[in-house]
Design goal:
alpha/beta, five-stranded parallel beta sheet, 11 strands
Length: 166
């Protein structure tokens, strides 16, 4: 499953981005989840406490009182490898985006083909590695990135997943 975090303070813009992303995943028949945030503080809090894990963060630069670039700097301290793409009407931080290893700097109004190209690039990666487990007589493949931890008791192993499933 491809997980996207969208940090955009304007609900109308959030809805446009979500709609375009959903359209991409529907056309490609890929599993996905999208979580939206209205502030940098909100997304940072969830990344910091481990409740939010993303394969891509789409970040607006101007977030009301918050600056999306500063939020990206703080995200990098917590997770140096998550892809971050800026979506903004401002060219002000285009050069600085390299400082946080941004994968893209997309200008609003967002062009669907540019977002699709970014998503295609990031979802094209090889099939995620997985662990095959026998569960109630059936084989189930669990992606490594969805496994939180394993717990052993006697001859049984309990797999705890990031979505809370055991």
């Amino acid at each position: 499953m491809f997980r996207i975090g969208i940090c955009e303070d304007l609900v109308e813009e959030q809805n446009k981005i979500v709609g375009k992303a959903k359209s991409f995943f529907y056309k490609k028949d890929l599993r996905y989840s999208i979580q939206t945030y209205s502030s940098g503080e909100a997304i940072l809090a969830e990344i910091e406490d481990g409740t939010a894990v993303f394969d891509l963060i789409l970040m607006d630069i101007h977030l009301g009182e918050t600056n999306g670039f500063d939020t990206a700097v703080n995200i990098r301290k917590l997770n140096p490898s998550v892809p971050i793409a800026f979506l903004t009407a401002s060219r002000d931080y285009a050069v600085e985006s390299y400082d946080v290893d941004a994968v893209a700097y997309l200008l609003k109004p967002l062009q669907e083909d540019k977002l699709y190209a970014l998503l295609a690039k990031l979802t094209k990666a090889e099939k995620p590695k997985s662990l095959s487990v026998k569960q109630r007589g059936h084989i189930r493949n669990l992606e490594y990135r969805d496994i939180l931890y394993l717990e052993s008791s006697g001859h049984r192993v309990m797999v705890h997943l990031t979505n809370g499933e055991e």
